[in-house]
Amino acid sequence: MATEKSNEMQGLTGNSAVALAMKQINPDVCPAYPITPSTAIIETFSSYVADGEVDTELITVESEHSAMSASIGAAAAGARVMTATSSQGLALMWEMLYIASGLRLPIVLTNVNRALAAPINIHCDHSDSMGARDSGWVQLYSETVQESYDNVFMAVRIAEKVRLPVMVCLDGFITSHAIENMATISDANVQDFVGEYTPETSLLKDMENPISIGAMTLPDYYMTFKKQQSEAMAEAKDVVEEVSAEFAQKFGREYGLLDSYELEDADVAIVIFNSATGTTKVAVDELRKEGFKVGVLRIRLFRPLPHAEIAAALKGLKAVACLDRADSFNDFGGPLFNEVRSSIYDLEDRPKVISRIYGLGGRDYKVEDAKSVFEELLKVVETGTVEEMTKYITI
Amino acid sequence: MTDKNNEELPEGGVIHEGGNADSYETGGWRKLRPVLDNEKCTNCLICWVMCPDSAIIVEDGKMVGFDMEHCKGCGICDTECPPKIKAIKMVSEEEAD
Description:
Number of helices of chain A: 12
Oligomer: heterodimer
Distance between the termini of chain A: 52 Å
Structural class of chain B: alpha+beta
Structural class of chain A: alpha/beta
Strand content of chain B: 15-25%
Number of domains of chain A: 2
Strand order of the largest sheet of chain A: 9-11-10-13-14-15
């Protein structure tokens, strides 16, 4: 069994790292329609196809709806399928996202997070993937270029094990276009890790015994299939842990369902996704030097929601701020806030929770912004009252 | 698939056989029923070509009747039957029974 802990270092952008990961996986089919800021993934990958470095059938379609439709067709035929998109592209795929998950097809999609129009904007926020959070896709969020690259390999294994599609999310421009010094894995070790894809059922597997996919189901059957899907999603949590543990053992980089930073003795914490975690960690380090007990909890797996783990991680804290880079437009905080707050409801001595919406449409989130949230939290602890439960910050 | 609450149903609603639409009866909500007059029919088979549900039964090149498990009573066969022949008539289900 190959192990590779001293990997080769390379300076890569998030997009080129994901394209490299796709090249190393060498999927059977990649239907794609490039969109900013994920364009370079498909641009780079199409060069690999043109140069004969992969065997992938690249299907250049006329829209993202078609990209996901072709992905579904190819996956139903038994192919290992990967694609990438962002923002409006993911929104246009929306109808087909549910079909991919309902048909239990293990498609892997990299979503480079970008704001949704209107007003039109090309920069980072999480409104695109948050809109798809109930579409039955497993969602992994990546803090760095390194993690984006690593998550793509793990996504393939997770998808094929639970037979659900997996979305790997990374921050548009911040992660997709920034060059980071990161470790790559050799082609042989990637192939060893992802293995060969041999689906139990597929349209092309046995031409003598054809099957039907996508048949109508009425009230007598539909709900049973949805229950199966719900159970598969619950199982996905364990599979993400197993696959991440195997990855850590083989390649030396550890990823949990959550990423806790300075939480053990913390009084207050910020819960957050993706690249803004690093900024928040800097604020934690600076405030810790001044004697404040602050920490960060990053959510890596959002679908399925590791609710018990979130409750365990936040147990004993006095106040928590959930930072959403998307709004639910419900006048009651962002999606992360609502789900984290619900996760800790059964804790006997639960922390107070506030919602702060930040960084929409690529608005900068700086160390000072994180610090001001921590200051608000410390004030909540001091006074015992929440003055503003939901609020826009970085504005 | 006999037990409708069977949680062992194939994942994703896959049906492990082809051509299974034939065994799924869809003619239950028909309001009008086509009735064939064998005396008038010339077996031109225009109805067989035009039927959107493949519900015209043909044996040895001859129109022999309708597949009532799949016919929805749309009346296309009646409309398409040549005006000089008019071998198909649509009658209400109540009347037919």
